């Protein structure tokens, strides 16, 4: 049995922009708890969190690392998440497994892009939020200004829980407002925190209004509820490398953050859109979710589960939502970085690794019975792509298997064969993201790939209605072929897809031949009339036709449907469609003119601006074809200080002059491919 109760567990993530001090804070907490004997170094590659080869090489976190420590009688599961936009998938997965998040803000650099991203994800998941102002001992910092900006960006509920003693080189530590016998400044801050905290409890609010105060016990009890509700957002100062402010933060985390029994996660019913709040109970039905997956070529697959309700015992079975079937959970482990310790059971609130459960995937729900499931984490869509091929002959099959193992770890990394272009394509959140995944492929599996830019996945559609008929008749001795179709083709709404309407009356075409016509039309949709790209958002109505008592057959109506569609669609004013993406670009404000001008030159259009501390945010939409290589341009313009996110928005018609160029290039490539095929056939 577990040696602790669920109420004694605290699940906390560290999140924020790269360089905000998350990993060093984790080291300082492990040191304070006696888990390590000295503070590790990022530059030396000796931290507990960043243990992978690529993390040591890049000198920043690429994965969400799970750590464990004990402090003041509480069991703390700590998840150190990456701070690069390129690896936000691991950050989102890490936050899925916790109840609270400490959002780190570098005192020198202020609020940055991943700071805001972490805040938004925490809100979507209903997590308690704490802010840590790190590197308070750095040169030329202005801590009151940093706090004022935090309140400006994240709201007036952000409240100081520690008072810094000096700043910059003169930073000597902090005074906690929760400590006994607070001075006048701390007492004033504490009074304001009390007023905000009791907003989370109506009964306590009434008592406060009547008596003008609440007891210390009542205040202590309402704080976790207030943090979870967001009526109080504690702010702490620290300098982790000097071990200043770390104890005060840790004492507060175990005292005022919510326990797993207070989780505000939502569940869906039977994979529907209907949601119900989680009821976290130690003796309740098992409900757990996989939030991290690691595939090791030597050890095998390790999935990390957060147990939200009930209990999971080793060597027992539980159902997995991905398959709906029971799986055996033979081995449970507690993890601290890369170190593992076998345990017999995981209770409500535990974070546990499960080994070699092949059918368990990231985002899956583990349960014993019932129809409640966790919705998948809110991962962004990867849009940066590379067409790939194995460098060494004979690696084709191994390439697919190994890439799919990496995809299991990171849902923002995808691998598939493009039906439109025929290329095998990997996609990620940025070129850096793809570079790391290719490095991981080489390190783990000894495999190297050749890469090139992928073809843009253009589509085609129509803009007006047309109708006509086509007769397929073939007589060449023996049985003939006959089929006649009358089709009406019209545009469907954007995103409406293909719709086939059977409007035949009077049986002029027999029922068994109707699917044959649809099959022929679908074949014609594979290559549109503009440039040979797939045709989408089309309604095809079969309203009349003729058949022959002997010569009509399946193939005849397939051909009639295909050829009839090809002839009629030419009168529907077909157009080329291109993917439009959303861009969110963050950069120092002095580059605004250069950035906005560059986006305009790429046929982009701004959709909004925002401010993140000293950084400017430009939101825009642009054609994917124009921004597929945007990372290198942004780096050059901002001297490496800019970052951006990209995700698919929708498809739009390509301007006529550009469509003509794309179509001409596509036809040339098809002709070259045809010539090459004929040459190969002759040889």
Secondary structure topology:
Layout: E1 9-16, H1 22-32, H2 53-58, E2 65-71, E3 74-80, H3 88-96, E4 100-106, H4 113-125, E5 128-134, H5 143-154, E6 158-160, E7 162-164, E8 174-176, H6 184-197, H7 202-211, H8 216-229, E9 233-237, H9 246-256, E10 266-269, E11 275-277, E12 287-296, E13 300-309, E14 312-313, E15 316-320, E16 325-329, E17 332-336, E18 339-343, E19 345-346, E20 351-355, E21 365-367, E22 372-373, E23 384-390, H10 396-409, E24 414-417, E25 424-428, H11 431-445, E26 449-452, E27 459-462, E28 466-474, E29 481-491, E30 498-502, H12 514-525, E31 538-546, H13 554-569, E32 574-588, H14 592-601, E33 605-612, E34 615-623, H15 624-627, H16 630-638, E35 643-653, H17 656-682
Helix pairs in contact: 3-4, 12-13
């Amino acid at each position: 049995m577990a040696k602790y109760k669920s109420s004694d567990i605290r699940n906390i993530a560290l999140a924020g922009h790269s360089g905000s001090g998350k990993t060093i804070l984790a080291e300082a907490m492990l040191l304070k708890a006696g888990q390590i004997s000295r503070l590790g170094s990022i530059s030396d590659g000796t931290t507990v969190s960043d243990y992978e080869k690529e993390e040591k090489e890049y000198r920043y976190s690429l994965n969400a690392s799970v750590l464990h420590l004990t402090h003041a009688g509480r069991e703390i599961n700590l998840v150190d998440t990456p701070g690069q936009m390129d690896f936000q998938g691991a950050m989102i997965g890490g936050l899925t497994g916790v109840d609270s998040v400490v959002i780190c803000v570098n005192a020198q650099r202020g609020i940055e892009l991943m700071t805001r991203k972490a805040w938004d994800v925490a809100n979507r998941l209903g997590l308690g939020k704490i802010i840590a102002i790190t590197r308070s001992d750095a040169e030329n910092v202005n801590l009151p200004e940093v706090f004022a900006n935090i309140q400006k960006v994240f709201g007036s509920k952000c409240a100081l829980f520690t008072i810094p003693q000096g700043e910059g080189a003169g930073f000597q530590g902090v005074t906690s407002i929760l400590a006994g016998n607070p001075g006048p400044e701390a007492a004033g801050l504490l009074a304001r925190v009390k007023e905000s905290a009791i907003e989370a409890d109506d009964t306590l609010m009434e008592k406060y209004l009547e008596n003008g105060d609440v007891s210390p016990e009542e205040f202590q009890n309402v704080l976790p509820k207030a943090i979870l509700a967001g009526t109080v957002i504690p702010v702490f100062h620290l300098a982790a490398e000097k071990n200043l402010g770390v104890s005060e933060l840790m004492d507060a985390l175990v005292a005022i953050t919510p326990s797993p029994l207070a989780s505000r996660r939502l569940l869906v019913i039977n994979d529907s859109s209907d949601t119900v709040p989680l009821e976290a109970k130690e003796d309740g039905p098992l409900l757990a979710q996989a939030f991290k997956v690691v595939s090791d070529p030597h050890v095998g697959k390790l999935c990390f589960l957060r147990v939200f309700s009930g209990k999971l015992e080793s060597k027992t079975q539980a159902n997995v939502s991905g398959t709906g079937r029971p799986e055996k959970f033979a081995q449970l482990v507690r993890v601290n970085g890369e170190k593992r310790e076998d345990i017999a059971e995981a209770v409500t609130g535990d974070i546990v690794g499960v080994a070699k459960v092949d059918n368990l995937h990231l985002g899956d729900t583990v349960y014993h019975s019932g129809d409640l499931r966790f919705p998948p984490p809110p991962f962004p869509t990867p849009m940066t792509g590379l067409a790939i091929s194995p460098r060494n002959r004979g690696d084709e099959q191994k390439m697919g298997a190994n890439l799919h193992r990496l995809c299991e770890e990171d849902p923002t990394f995808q691998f598939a064969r493009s039906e439109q272009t025929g290329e095998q394509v990997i996609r990620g959140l940025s070129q850096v993201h793809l570079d790391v995944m290719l490095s991981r492929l080489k390190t783990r599996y000894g495999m190297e790939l050749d890469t090139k830019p992928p073809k843009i996945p253009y589509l085609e559609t129509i803009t007006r209605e047309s109708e006509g008929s086509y007769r397929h008749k073939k007589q060449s001795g023996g049985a003939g072929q006959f089929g006649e179709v009358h089709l009406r083709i019209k545009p469907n709404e954007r995103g409406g897809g293909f719709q086939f309407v059977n409007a035949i009356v009077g049986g002029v075409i027999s029922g068994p031949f109707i699917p044959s016509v649809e099959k022929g039309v679908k074949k014609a949709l594979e290559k549109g009339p503009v440039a040979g790209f797939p045709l989408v958002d089309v309604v095809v109505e079969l309203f009349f036709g003729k058949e022959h008592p002997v010569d009509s057959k399946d193939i005849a109506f397939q051909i009639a449907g295909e050829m009839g569609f090809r002839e009629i669609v030419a009168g529907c004013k077909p157009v080329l469609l291109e993917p439009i993406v959303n861009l969110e670009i963050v950069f120092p404000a002095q580059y605004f003119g250069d950035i906005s001008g560059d986006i305009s030159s790429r046929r982009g259009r701004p959709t909004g601006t925002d401010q993140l501390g000293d950084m400017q945010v430009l939101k825009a939409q642009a054609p994917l074809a124009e921004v597929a290589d945007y990372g290198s341009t942004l780096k050059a313009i901002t001297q490496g200080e800019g970052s951006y996110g990209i995700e698919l928005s929708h498809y739009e018609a390509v301007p006529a002059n550009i469509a003509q160029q794309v179509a001409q290039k596509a036809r040339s490539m098809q002709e070259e491919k045809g010539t090459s095929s004929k040459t190969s056939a002759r040889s």
